[in-house]
């Protein structure tokens, strides 16, 4: 399973509607509204890179209100316990 983090710039007046449409998009597992450089962050999970491309370019980019996307592919997931253990030296 491949995970992609999609940073989304959206038209301000359409953020709630775009977020809901993204959440209803096949392949999108989570959507977050956030403060900062982007308006929304979508988590995409797919079997391969071709499916990621289909979800991002064929679905997310076509949602009304979405202006721009930047996609990051995740290499590895770390749970809180794993990160804490990695920084725990000599305990």
TrEMBL record:
GO terms for biological process: response to amino acid. It holds the Pfam family AsnC_trans_reg. GO terms for cellular component: cytosol. GO terms for molecular function: sequence-specific DNA binding. Residues 6-76 form the Transcription regulator AsnC/Lrp ligand binding domain. This is Lrp/AsnC family transcriptional regulator. The lineage of its organism: Bacteria, Bacillati, Actinomycetota, Actinomycetes, Mycobacteriales.
């Amino acid at each position: 399973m491949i995970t992609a983090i999609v940073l989304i710039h959206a038209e301000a007046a359409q953020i709630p509607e775009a977020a809901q449409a993204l959440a209803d998009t096949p392949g999108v597992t989570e959507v977050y509204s956030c403060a900062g450089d982007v308006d929304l962050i979508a988590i995409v999970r797919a079997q391969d890179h071709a499916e990621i491309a289909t979800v991002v370019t064929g679905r997310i980019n076509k949602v009304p209100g979405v202006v721009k996307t930047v996609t990051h592919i995740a290499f590895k997931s770390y749970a809180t316990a794993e990160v804490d253990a990695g920084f725990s030296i000599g305990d």
